[in-house]
Amino acid sequence: MNSEGHVLIVDDDSALCEMLEDGLSVKGFEVSTATSGQKGFEIASSSNVDVIVSDLNMEGMSGLELSEAVASVKEVPVIVLTGEASIQSAIEALRLGVYDFLLKPVKLDVLVLALRRAVEKRRLRAEVEQLRNAVAESTQFEAIVGESHPMKELVSLVARVAPADVSVLVTGESGTGKELVARALHQRSPRVEGPFIAINCAAMPASLLESELFGHVQGAFTDAKAAKDGLFVQADGGTLFLDEIGDMPMEMQAKLLRALQEQRVRPVGGSEERQFNVRVVAATNKDLDEAVEEGTFREDLFYRINVVRVPTPPLRARGRDILLLAQHFIERAATRANRNIRGISPAAAEKLVTYDWPGNVRELENCIERGVALAQGDQITIDDLPERVRAFESVAVEPDDLGGTLLTVQELERRHIIRVLEAVDGNKTRAAEVLGFDRRTLYRKLERYGIDA
User: Fold this and answer.
1) What pTM does this model have?
2) CATH H superfamily, domain 6-135
3) Which residue has the higher pLDDT, 148 or 361?
4) Which are the contacts of 246, defined by CB distance < 8 A and separation ≥ 6?
């Protein structure tokens, strides 16, 4: 099929069919013809037609009846041609879902313009449907959406480690979905019937964090008007998610380590210890290897929580997942806002794919919610995107060894780092020397690009 699309001409005037076939073929369309509505319906039903151009008044099946019949079996736009200018027939055509209504004799350029719009609309609908199907398939693994290679590796690792009752450290940049991974680990574990409780370790001072995790007795401090169980006890039999553990104060790290080793906690102000049975999943956007080297994170605690490490890839490394997630967020936001937003315009989709998403999935969701709120039609356009996304220009080069494929500088750096690691058999110290980085910089780049060294 030509790139312009496959057009079916249906008219009982065979000379007109031939004339339009010749003209549209020159313009790059693949053209089929039929001299009756019934024959046109048979062709449309059995072949991949992008748009139908039909005469309004034909013996047997009329153009409107053909449009209605085709709509019952597949979604193909129909452009109706008529030599009779009738407001009533135009209204009836639109009511039956006809895409456009043109008067004979139609100018070829006018018809070509209408055909190109119709083909683009059908293809966009097909792409949206494909995205919806892909979203439905990709969300079979809990709430994790993605089909890219990094996400398939992530899902595979989560599926393998979930049944094992060991501590897990989820790493990755802010906004990459670390809590979703923690919840997936819980949902696929034998502890699924138990509670899943999450706490942000960076959101509160050490004294309050101790009270939240271990609990307190009545009168332990000014506002302790009643005794309260800590989250370790509340999560008994389930999973406790310690988010941003890399920001936990050193004094709390020692107390947390003891609790994990003993499987007991002593409430603040209390004298008796409480036993618990929880699985700990911790998450951080910091380089804990570097933090251990710098002395800002306890090495013994690091080994306690880092039995299995699950890295979450940044959004910029996930390719087509960007559009899958965007469609997922569109459907969710449109439902909440009660708006008929079906998808994203091709130009807006290109902007989404080329933007580097420093805020990752969280930033994309915010961007789509804005787009749904501002969209004036049934799709999000470039004008509906935030200024930072509209204005972003990714620098690209054309390397000789990649078949002329245009790649961003970031992608070239990612590939270069992988090649160097392969050349030195994964020795990070040697790789850092070859790349001209210090080890800390190399660790940061491995996290940023989602590279599992």
Assistant:
1) 0.63
2) Response regulator (3.40.50.2300)
3) 361
4) 284, 285, 286, 288, 291, 297
